[in-house]
């Protein structure tokens, strides 16, 4: 059976299942903003509306009215997941993986619809953009960090280039922190779970000068004693301490103006990643949680941010002018035991110092039948990245890295014209210009002296030569969408959209690159020369049709979509084995066809009960392969049959939430959810695979009247699934493969209060 026949069969299977089942969804029932419905599931039978900000209009919209595949999670859903970081959402939406990389703690390796990254290199641009309070996070470092006190999370699938910019070809994650209320309030929570792991978090807020000035301070602290037992070290691995504080100030003298300031400062200290050493012919995910490494490593992350959001209502088009300014800095210093066992075979030190500034100014208004959003965006960031590879008890000690300076600006517009009460046309576009300047300190070949000193984070000297270059990319990302509403609670849509993933420079380039100016190639045996550090934009055209519906008096919500992406110059950050560890090659390796379908359903059969499920299928076919992805020295059919890392074909979830309110006003709620993600490649050469992922979570909560106090018992990964991670091939000379580990079964108790 061909891939396309399997795809057609899969569509038929999904459609038939969705039409006959009543338990097919994962779809949140709580709004992503304060304007959500105040009714609890125990008080209503129908499914509540969800409001989102995805289209940046002058007003909030129901998610069911937005022609995009969106999964929005409000406070209730985040609480059921015992959410602390985006990785806790794991595979909570169809076609989505929100995993930590594993090679360094706190680094994202998100994958939407087969598009994502599998590297800890900061020069690897994400395919899934993350935005916190409207501010784009410019690097994958510091993305999977603990957070608290959120209004909601919106997960947008498919390219979002017109309104969100570059590096959102797979999709975007929008996070919004909670704004201060109009009354004095103290909120807090405390928990203890397997490890043991201790968590304390709370907030204090009040209003002054009437309600014109509102202030809130949120704080968070976590101490993890380590989940993994390590007999080599005689202690548990995975230790960490994390804290942050987030003051928020909201100024709103009247309904026509509001100004919000958000500040955050935090830090994490702990062990490095936990690894497992395997033979080169073993399958990833086959050996449980065994950990024998003799070097715990370390992780030191410091971050700070400042955000200013201004909203001014204007009479012109009954619109709103919004300005969002953001600053963020992340410093990451880490040591990873890249042999995962006894003996100082391979220790890898990493240092990143990144800071960014951005500003978005936009106007959104309504002119008769036209909803219009126009804006301008500016972004700049710079970072220093250094990596120190110590092999064979530091007999080989090589330091490399680079400095990247980036500046970007964009102009964008999107309009929705309502041709009639049932038919609408959306047209938009975004012009972007990006400049990058690189100074690269190349990874020394055998016999060369390193240019850099890792301890002092400085680079001098000229052996190997320092690579310097600058480049500019510009692009235009259009979008056209047609929506049709054949019935009041049914929406059909078709969309054609373009997305672009930014080009750049590989900060992990080796000194044996034949194309580097002034560099004499020194090519170790059994390896191939590295491509030029410069790589170019990746782009795609996406074609999607979908539907959203609320049926049977809003007791059934069924959403679904079918998509096809024509992807050009797909960026792949491959790891090539060498006698001296590995070398990273970042190149526009191939074109690809990516296609699939997704479906979400929620059922509310009786008062206080919600049943939910999702299903998704994604297929990736390489075409016009330009790079030897298999590593066998030639480009042939072997390369064409490969798939990108972390791109699972099938995923699904199924769950239920039940609520019962007692006569005195107290309540008992229970939530259970099972999620499955299929086998996926762990490396670009598809030699290693991440085996299937099966996650079972549950939560039981008793709450006093008005939810002033609640007590929860919860479990994560109750099946003790050990199949997460990816493969690091340390090369034929070292003879092993490294597998990062994630925690297994965890049981916890949490108490919450609100005064």
Structural key phrases:
single chain, 755 residues, mainly beta, 22-stranded antiparallel barrel, 4 helices, 43 strands, 4% helix
What does the model show?
With 755 residues, this protein is mainly beta. Helix content is 4%, strand content 54%. The chain is built from four helices and 43 strands. It has a 22-stranded antiparallel β-barrel. The chain has a five-stranded mixed β-sheet with strand order 3-9-10-7-8. Strands 4-5-6 form a three-stranded antiparallel β-sheet, with no helix packed on it.
Per DSSP, the total helix count is: 4
Q: What proportion of the residues is helical, as a percent range? A: under 10%
What percentage of amino acids are in beta strands? Answer: over 45%
So what's the overall shape? globular
Number of strands: 43
Average pLDDT for all residues:
86
Distance between the termini: 62 Å
Pick out the low-confidence regions: 1-44, 513-530
Largest sheet: 22 strands, antiparallel, barrel
Integer-rounded radius of gyration: 25 Å
Structural class: mainly beta
Q: Summed up, what is this model?
A:
By secondary structure, the chain is mainly beta. It is 4% helix and 54% strand. The N terminus is likely disordered.
Architecture blueprint of SSEs:
Blueprint: H1 3-20, E1 51-52, E2 61-62, E3 70-73, H2 75-80, E4 96-97, E5 111-112, E6 115-116, E7 128-132, E8 135-136, E9 150-157, H3 161-164, E10 171-177, E11 185-193, E12 197-208, E13 213-224, E14 228-230, E15 235-237, E16 240-254, E17 257-270, E18 275-278, E19 298-314, E20 319-337, E21 346-367, E22 370-391, E23 396-418, E24 423-441, E25 452-453, E26 458-459, E27 466-487, E28 490-501, E29 504-505, E30 534-535, E31 538-551, E32 556-578, E33 581-603, E34 609-623, H4 637-640, E35 650-661, E36 667-677, E37 680-681, E38 689-690, E39 693-703, E40 709-716, E41 728-729, E42 737-740, E43 746-754
Parallel strand pairs: 7-10
Antiparallel strand pairs: 1-2, 3-9, 4-5, 5-6, 7-8, 9-10, 11-12, 11-43, 12-13, 13-16, 14-15, 16-17, 17-19, 18-42, 19-20, 20-21, 21-22, 22-23, 23-24, 24-27, 25-26, 27-28, 28-31, 29-30, 31-32, 32-33, 33-34, 34-35, 35-36, 36-39, 37-38, 39-40, 40-43, 41-42
């Amino acid at each position: 059976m061909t891939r396309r026949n399997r795809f057609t069969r899969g569509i038929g299977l999904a459609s038939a299942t969705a039409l006959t089942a009543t338990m097919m969804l994962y779809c949140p029932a709580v709004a992503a903003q304060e304007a959500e419905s105040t009714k609890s599931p125990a008080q209503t039978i129908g499914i509540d509306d969800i409001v989102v900000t995805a289209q940046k209009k002058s007003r909030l919209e129901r998610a069911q009215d937005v022609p995009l595949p969106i999964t929005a999670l409000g406070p209730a859903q985040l609480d059921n997941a015992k959410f602390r970081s985006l990785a806790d959402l794991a595979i909570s939406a169809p076609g989505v993986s929100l995993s930590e990389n594993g090679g360094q703690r706190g680094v994202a390796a998100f994958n939407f619809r087969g598009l994502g990254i599998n590297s800890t290199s900061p020069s690897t641009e994400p395919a899934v953009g993350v935005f916190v309070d409207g501010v784009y996070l410019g690097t994958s470092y510091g993305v999977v960090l603990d957070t608290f006190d959120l209004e909601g999370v919106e997960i947008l699938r498919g390219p979002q280039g017109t309104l969100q910019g570059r590096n959102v070809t797979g999709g975007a994650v929008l996070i919004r922190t909670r704004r201060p209320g109009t009354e004095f309030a103290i909120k807090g929570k405390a928990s203890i779970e397997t490890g043991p792991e201790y968590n304390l978090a709370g907030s204090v807020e009040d209003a002054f000068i009437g309600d014109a000035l509102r202030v809130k301070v949120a704080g968070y602290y976590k101490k993890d004693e380590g989940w993994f037992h390590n007999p080599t070290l005689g202690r548990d691995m995975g230790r960490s301490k994390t804290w942050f504080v987030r003051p928020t100030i909201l100024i709103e003298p009247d309904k026509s103006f509001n100004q919000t300031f958000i500040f955050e400062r935090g830090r994490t200290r702990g062990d490095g990643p936990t690894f497992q050493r395997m033979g080169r012919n073993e399958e990833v995910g086959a050996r449980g949680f065994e950990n024998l490494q003799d070097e715990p490593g370390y992780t030191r992350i410091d971050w700070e941010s400042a955000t200013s959001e201004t909203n001014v209502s204007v009479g012109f088009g009954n619109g709103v002018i919004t300005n969002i300014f953001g600053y963020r800095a992340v410093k990451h210093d880490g040591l990873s035991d890249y042999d995962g066992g006894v003996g100082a075979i391979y220790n890898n030190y990493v240092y990143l110092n990144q800071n960014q500034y951005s500003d978005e100014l936009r106007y959104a208004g309504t002119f008769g039948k036209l909803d219009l959003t126009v804006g301008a965006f500016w972004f700049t960031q710079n970072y220093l990245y250094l990596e120190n590879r110590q092999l064979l008890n530091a007999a080989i000690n090589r330091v490399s890295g680079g400095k990247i300076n980036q500046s970007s600006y964009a102009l964008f517009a999107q309009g929705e014209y309502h041709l009639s009460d049932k038919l609408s046309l959306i047209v938009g576009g975004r012009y972007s210009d990006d400049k990058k300047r690189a100074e690269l300190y190349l990874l020394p070949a055998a016999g060369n002296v390193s240019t850099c000193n890792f301890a002092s984070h400085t680079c001098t000297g000229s052996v190997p030569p320092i690579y310097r270059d600058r480049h500019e990319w510009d692009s235009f990302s259009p979008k056209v969408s047609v929506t049709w509403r054949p019935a009041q609670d049914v929406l059909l849509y078709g969309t054609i959209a373009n997305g672009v993933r930014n080009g750049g420079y590989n900060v992990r380039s080796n000194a044996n690159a034949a194309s580097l100016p002034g560099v004499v190639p020194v090519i170790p045996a059994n390896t191939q020369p590295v491509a030029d550090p410069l790589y170019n934009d990746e782009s795609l055209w996406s074609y999607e049709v979908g539907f959203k519906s609320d049926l049977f008096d809003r007791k059934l919500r069924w959403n679904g979509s079918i998509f096809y992406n024509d992807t050009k110059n797909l960026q792949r950050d491959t790891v090539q084995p060498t006698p001296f560890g590995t070398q990273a090659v970042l190149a526009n390796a191939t074109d690809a066809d990516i296609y699939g379908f997704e479906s979400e359903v929620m059922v509310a059969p009786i008062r206080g009960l919600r049943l939910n499920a999702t299903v998704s299928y994604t297929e990736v076919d390489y075409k016009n392969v330009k790079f030897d992805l298999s590593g066998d020295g030639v480009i042939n059919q072997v390369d064409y049959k490969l798939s990108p890392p972390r791109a699972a074909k099938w995923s699904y979830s199924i769950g239920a939430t039940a609520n019962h309110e007692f006569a005195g006003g107290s309540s008992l709620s229970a939530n259970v959810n099972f999620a499955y993600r299929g086998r996926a490649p762990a490396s670009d050469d598809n030699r290693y695979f991440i085996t299937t992922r099966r996650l079972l979570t549950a939560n039981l909560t008793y709450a006093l009247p008005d939810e002033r106090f609640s007590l929860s018992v919860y479990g994560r990964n109750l099946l003790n699934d050990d199949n997460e991670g990816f493969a690091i091939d340390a090369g034929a000379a070292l003879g092993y493969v490294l597998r990062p580990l994630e925690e297994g079964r965890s049981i916890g108790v949490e108490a919450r209060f609100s005064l």
